[in-house]
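Here's what a typical entry looks like (DUF7282 domain-containing protein):
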Amino acid sequence: MNYAKLFSLAVLALALGNCDKDDDDDNMPTPQPKETASMTVNDQTTSQNMVEVELADVPADGWIVIHKDDNGSPVVPDIVSEPKFIQEGENMKVKVAFNDETTLMDGEKVWVMLHEDTGMPQQYEFDGQSGEDAPFTKNGDPVMSQITIESASIMVSNQAATNNMVTIDRVVAAQDGWLVVHNDDGTGNIVLPDIIGKTMVEKGVNTDVQIQLDQNVMLQSGQKLFPMLHLDNGQIGVYEFDGSGEFDGPEIFGNEAFPNNVIFTSFEVM
């Protein structure tokens, strides 16, 4: 046997095998670096002292928090919300609640920010010094958005109630819900929780909203009526608030004591 020829064939086979391996390596998918975090959150009318984040997409578990604004920059490390834990990946329509100590102002600006969860799992620990739970960054900057928050509102004029029908000029609702009317107690004070009329309103701006009052309600000139915004968070389309239950309670803005945080107003019957 020609050993020189056999050796040459063996070397050639080895070389071809290595070429195949290199080709296989070339065909292997290249590991992609983790994507940076991103967030979509807009100016909004808030419901129940909560900001809704449309989308928070994070490469690892983390947090959504809210910071106060100071001349166009976030106040850190203090936060004015309860930290909201989110999981790796896309998180849709996340509600982040302001904490009970925060004073809210209609039309104020705040900063919504994404933070990592790098310390104790599911325990928010960012203090600006330890390095734990620092903000997610993109191109070296924190992933955050400045937004304007507004209160829901009701505008109404003094009016005559023809056939026990009243018209509310303008309602800005944070969510689909109820606009109800409370009577006065004969001395100009609101009667709660009983109502004398109601209708549904949609999220956003509602104009010239008509409410049919109960037919047994006797109205007098100078009498006060109190329109108030309520949620519709129980059986949809059924008003269920009885003054103590968990469903269809009043819409609120801010942390002042009741009734100063409730969205309502008054007008006089002419």
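Residues 35 and 59 are 6 Å apart (CA to CA).

More examples are in the samples folder.
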